[in-house]
Amino acid sequence: MCRHIAFLGEPEALGELLLKPPHSLYVQSWAPRHQRHGTVNADGFGVGWYAEGDPLPARYRRPGPVWADLSFADLARVVRSSAVLAAVRDATLSGADGEAAAAPYAYGPWLFSHNGAVTGWPRSLSGLARSLPADELLALEARCDSALVWALVLHRLRSGDEAPGALADTVTEVAAAAPGSRLNLLLTDGETIAATAWGDTLWYRTDPLGGRTVVASEPYDDDPHWHEVPDRTLLAASRTDVLLTPLKEPEPHGATGPASTSQAAPGALSEDVKEPMA
Fold first, then answer.
1. Residue 204 bridge partners (DSSP)
2. Which of 2, 106, 152, 268 is catalytic?
3. What does the pLDDT look like over 178-233, one tens digit per residue?
């Protein structure tokens, strides 16, 4: 469910990244090649990008399919950025919240996307929802599973956690409360990318000499320099480096079991693996 992509590098037109490649995110909205769940991503789309000198990203989101937005091609042709996060959506619940539920979600310098679904939603995460401060729950942009997962990640970021750890601990916590969930998360602050592969596909390619890294649900072309990320893996990337860390399967504890949004889950991370660069 859903496809997403994040980019860091020299400024590039959104269209060169999202529309022009033969298997671009635009094409993936109706013809994904590696999507394991669902076939059409027509329940909304969004793109976030960073302008030079401004740490806060801009967003363009719509509730319908990207191919139905006649203005997006013009926007994508002229807007250039050195950091982008974009997504096309296949909703867990049909019609849930429209544009407000379309990624990327944003707070401060952060952009976030969730590719997947939480099993047993919403009951399965009721215990985790109660662990959040009331003001953070009331500030949810939408009532969908992705919005609550973002709230759990954001709570950790606000508490001072680094982005990779915030994603890893949130995935472990949600997977324990809702076994069988698909939790491919993608997060950027315009300088780094953090992502998880948990139940669906994730790929990356990087050009260290050119200072360019792309992380995506699936490759947008057939370049052999794409690398697939193993399932149950945390990815942390800059413009020149990609680090993969295996994630351990949590012990299920049920919807009302113990949960903490301020401490790392014991054993959430295993040994780091530095991937060879293309």
1. 215, 227
2. 2
3. 999 999 999 999 999 999 999 999 999 999 888 999 999 999 999 999 999 999 99
Radius of gyration of the chain from Cα atoms?
17
Q: What CATH number does the domain located at 3-274 have?
A: 3.60.20.10
Q: How confident is the model at residue 50 (pLDDT cuts 50, 70, 90)?
A: very high
Helices (H), 92-138: 126-130, 134-138
* CA distances in angstroms from 64 to 48, 101, 191, 213, 273, listed in the order given: 17, 11, 30, 29, 39
Q: How far apart are CA 272 and CA 260, in angstroms?
A: 24
**Domain residue limits, the chain:** 3-274
> Which amino acid belongs to residue 132?
L
- Token pair for residue 61? 């989101």
Asked if residue 195 lies in contact with residue 201, where contact means CB atoms within 8 angstroms, the answer is: no
CB-based contact 103:66 (threshold 8 Å): no
Strand order in the sheet with 80-88: 58-62, 45-49, 80-88, 3-13, 212-216, 203-207, 227-228
CA 258 to CA 103: how far, in whole Å?
A: 29
Tens of pLDDT, residues 122-162: 999 999 999 999 999 999 999 999 999 999 999 999 999 99
Q: Report the DSSP beta bridge partners of residue 241.
A: none
To which residue do tokens 């807007």 refer? 79
Decide if 2 is catalytic: yes
User: Which residues have C-beta within 8 Å of that of residue 155, sequence separation ≥ 6?
Assistant: 132, 133, 136, 261, 262
Structure tokens at 199: 């139940």
3-state helix, strand, coil in the chain (%, to 5): 25, 30, 50
For the stretch 4-37, pLDDT in tens is: 999 999 999 999 999 999 999 998 988 677 777 7
Percent of the chain with pLDDT over 70: 87
